[in-house]
Amino acid sequence: MLGRIAAALVVVLALSSGVAGAVPDATATATPTPSEPSVGSANATLVAAYPNPVAHDDRGEFVAVRFERPTNTTGWTLTDGTTTAGLPNRTVEGTVAFATVPERARSGTDYRVAPLSGRLRLANGGDRLALSDGNDTVSTARYRSAPESEIREFGAGVWRPVGATDHDPIRTDGGAGTAFVLPDAPNQAVETLASADERIRLAGYTFTSERITAALLEAAAEGVGVSVLLDGAPVGGITDRQAGQLDQLAEGGVDVRLLSGPHLRYRHHHPKYAVVDDRALVLTENFKPAGTGGASSRGWGVVLEDASAADALASVHRADWTWRAATPWREYRRGRDFVDGEPALGSFGTRHEPKRIDVDSATVLVTPDNAGTALHSRIEAAEDRLLIQQVRIDSRENDLLRAALRAAERGVRVRIHLGGSWYVEEDNAALVAWLNRRAEREGWDLEAVVDDPDPDGYGKIHTKGVIVDDTAVVGSLNWVESATTENREVLVALESAGAADYYASVFRSDWSGGSRPIPGGLLAAAAVAGSGGLLALRRLEFVGREGTVTDWRW
User: Fold this and answer.
1) Per-residue pLDDT for 75 more than 70?
2) What is the mean pLDDT of the chain?
3) Which is the most buried residue in 25, 74, 329, 488, by most CB within 10 A?
4) Rounded Cα distance, 500 and 511, in Å
5) For residue 126, how far is the Cα from the chain centroid?
6) Where in the chain is the domain with CATH 3.30.870.10?
């Protein structure tokens, strides 16, 4: 009877070890099956394994065990069914990583590392691990198909990159700020950077702006500490134009690093932000003429006069800057060739001036740590309006989109404005068609359109913006699954009626000034007719900007 009670307790402990809200993987368990556990046996749980390090011969592997109270591990063993290693003859408590090569394992974990005697070889293809106290099995766990340089967390049932951060959302007391949009305010970003007195911490995806290069060089020459952190493998490659700008920065004393190499912990470094003294600049746009330079893209930005928000961003920058994948530019560029890059040459007038705003509070969010969950929760709590402007949404099953549909079902007004660029047009049109059919069938106050930009206003939608009631969310997060789970993205949620109304007015202008509404009833008929009918309908509906959009409150 005591054995069954102890076994049940350990099952509870194992299940409680996961991330809040996560569903444990059925293949990753930590369920002990002792017959007569010795004292302390029910106290230990397998919590993680690192089977596939980058290092040759997988040196650096470890298995992490959590001990809820002090436990003497003399006579304890770990086995993968083929090889077995002994735990040290000592008393341990808390979570400990056990490794046969502890000096190599320390670079892959923040847990205390203790040595294993004997041999334990964790197979990259998968293994079943067992932790035993003498003859009693205390805890078991299983993993399959180990990705390189990722740790299996058994309780959560997920793989996480080695060195992955665990930032919490940082909520500040807010303060004053400036909301702006692009291409209307092409001087806002460069002027903010040029005003630095002490520090600039810039983080981006791509960088080709000559004006921003000049501002950073001037700041560095005046004694400002300037560091630039960029992605080392952007889609399409690094252009010769970007290489030229980074050469100038490095020669002028700016410390430039690119995230690259086998120790990458995120698929892409995709944020667009800068810390300027005690101010925070957060954008949806890249540091290049098409983005911050105002030569093409519709985007949103904000400058917060909020030291707490600036410090929160600086901590994210520091964590990514100091990670081993952050490679100095001169080292990165050695022996590399770069791709041709064409400059953006568009020119647009100012229709929406920057606006001073008061922010009740600002919350700094990052992926993959917290932003997906936080944004999902905000959408689930929407009561009045939900305005979404995105380059694309990857599927009908996107978690954020499903939350938006639930908001519409509750009676929230939902408007979704998607990009119309050639590389997303077809997919966006299909999704918009489905959304409008669904809204018509359910009687929801939801409309979706594909963008057809006014040529005098902007070139294309590149925004990643959301307005939820009186909160505006500005940042780099595209509504695709990989952005939420695999990329480094940075957003700021502005609890500010002034900010929300400002971006909503721009949204309304973009929607009415150039969009291609797709009536749900017509598309329903086209869907029945098959793909040929859908293409014919697109030709009918997508000519010009003459479609009528039903009036609705903003």
Assistant:
1) yes
2) 87
3) 488
4) 16
5) 28
6) 170-541
Residue 507: phi and psi, rounded to 5, are -55, -45
pLDDT, tens digit, 9 for 90 and up, residues 454-473: 888 999 999 999 999 999 99
CA–CA gap between residue 61 and residue 147 (Å, rounded): 13
Q: Looking at the predicted structure, is the pLDDT value of residue 9 above 70? A: no
CB within 8 A of 52, min separation 6: which ones?
Answer: 58, 122, 124, 146, 147, 148, 149, 150
**Distant-in-sequence, close-in-space partners of 350: CB < 8 Å, separation ≥ 6:** 184, 185
Per DSSP, the residues of 349-396 read: --SS--EEEEESEEEEEEETTTHHHHHHHHHHT--SEEEEEES-B--T
The answer as to CATH 3.30.870.10 being correct for domain 170-541 is yes
What residues are paired with 491 via a beta bridge?
365, 475
Write out pLDDT tens, residues 90-105.
999 999 999 999 999 9
Nearest Cα to Cα of residue 158 among 543, 531, 486: 486
Which whole-number Å values give the CA distances from 535 to 308, 436, 437, 527, 531, in the listed order?
51, 17, 17, 10, 6
**Rounded Cα distance, 123 and 132, in Å:** 19
Least confident among 43-57, 108-122, 523-537: 523-537
Using the CB atoms, write b or e for 356-366: b if 16+ within 10 Å: ebebebbbbbb
Instruction: Say if residue 456 is exposed, middle or buried (CB neighbours under 10 Å; 0-12, 13-18, 19+).
Output: exposed
Which among 14, 326, 270, 27 has a CA at the least distance from the CA of 158?
A: 27
| Selection from 466, 180, 499, 470 nearest residue 358 by Cα | 499
Contact by Cβ (8 Å): 142, 45 = no
User: Rounded to whole angstroms, how far apart are CA atoms 477 and 400?
Assistant: 11
Distance from C-alpha of 315 to C-alpha of 328, rounded to nearest angstrom:
19
Cis-peptide, bond into residue 32, ω within 30° of zero: no
317-362: pLDDT as tens digits:
999 999 999 999 999 999 999 999 877 778 899 999 999 999 999 9
How would you write 397-464 as a 3-class SS string? CCHHHHHHHHHHHCCCEEEEEECCCCCCHHHHHHHHHHHHHHHHHHCCCEEEEEECCCCCCCCEECCE
Task: Tell me the Cα Rg of the chain.
Answer: 26
Sign of the torsion angle spanned by Cα atoms 332, 333, 337, 340? positive
Type of residue numbered 512: S
User: What's residue 6's pLDDT?
Assistant: 41
**Partners of 362 in the β-ladder:** 494
Torsion angle of alpha carbons 302, 308, 311, 312, nearest 10°?
Answer: -80
Residue 297 near residue 320 (C-beta atoms within 8 A): no
CA 161 to CA 224: how far, in whole Å? 34
Q: Whole-model pTM? A: 0.81
**C-alpha to C-alpha distance for 101 and 114, rounded to whole angstroms:** 9
